[in-house]
Design a protein that fits this description.
Distance between the termini: 71 Å
Largest sheet: none
Number of strands: 0
Order of helices and strands: HH
Number of helices: 2
Radius of gyration: 24 Å
Shape: elongated
């Protein structure tokens, strides 16, 4: 019975991860250049949320 070449399989997995990471980074950069207004709107919507009030917690027991 033939032995499997684990180093080859490991290298292929590493190359696949590297390729996916590069593609994801490329998409992220394209989105940043194309949708700069969208990113700013998302940031504002997150910052625009009201801050939680300390005495207004529903989990607080009397």
């Amino acid at each position: 019975m033939a032995k499997t070449n684990f180093t080859y399989e490991k290298r292929q997995k590493e190359l696949e991860k590297k390729r996916k990471k590069e593609e994801k980074l490329k998409r992220k950069q394209e989105r940043a250049t194309d949708g700069t207004a969208d990113s700013a709107e998302e940031a504002e919507s997150i910052e625009g949320l009201p801050a939680p009030v300390e005495g207004d917690s529903q989990t607080e027991t009397p």
